[in-house]
Amino acid sequence: MQLGSLQEIIDRYIHDGQSVALEGFTHLIPFAAGHEILRQQKRDLHLIRMTPDLIYDQLIGAGCARELTFSWGGNPGVGSLHRLRDAVENDWPRPLTIHEHSHAGMAAAYTAGAARLPFGMLRGYVATHLSDVNPQIREVRCPYTNEMIATVPAINPDVTVLHAQAADHQGNILIRGIVGAQKEAALAATTLIVTVEEIVESLAAPMNAIVLPHWFVTHVTTLFTWLGMRLPATASGSLSG
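^ thats the sequence. predicted structure below, dont judge the formating
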């Protein structure tokens, strides 16, 4: 583990033109990392997120995004995302390409990415009109039942950014609360950055808790002491950053 800062980590691992997923719901939204991306004025990002909310609205409004893959854009407490609407309807502050999915479609795409499969499958899109606005949605015929099944391309972000409650000194991550697609988004990524609230001696994870093992994690930073961690040379080369 090496000393660092969130500013240094974002500068080192997130670059113009990359695909970036900031995943997590409610208390696990990685606002600090998102605001650092905004401060550093990263550009031409392909943003990926289930339920893009205020942090993505800010990034879009600041001109950081060229593309958005998402399911349901809005915020329950605030309502419509005005900068997202401006980008789609008025090309302001710049045009934004969108790939719209349902939550189930995004989950299937993340799961396929985590498994390193080329696409995910689901029945929910069959006989709907979502493919009219998202040409990435296609169909395959099942070789066993002969039925048609909808497909979505796998999501493999260049960088996934998560927020979690704790990490231990080895870099294992404990996530409590509404997890959503964080685990799948983490395993699908080339680089994984996690901000945590504290570094602890032992995670003391209860049964069925979500624990991301350290060999998947590229860098950990706490929001208080700014600790960073690099993968060992023996870890997967695709995640070594």
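Residues 94 and 146 are 44 Å apart (CA to CA).
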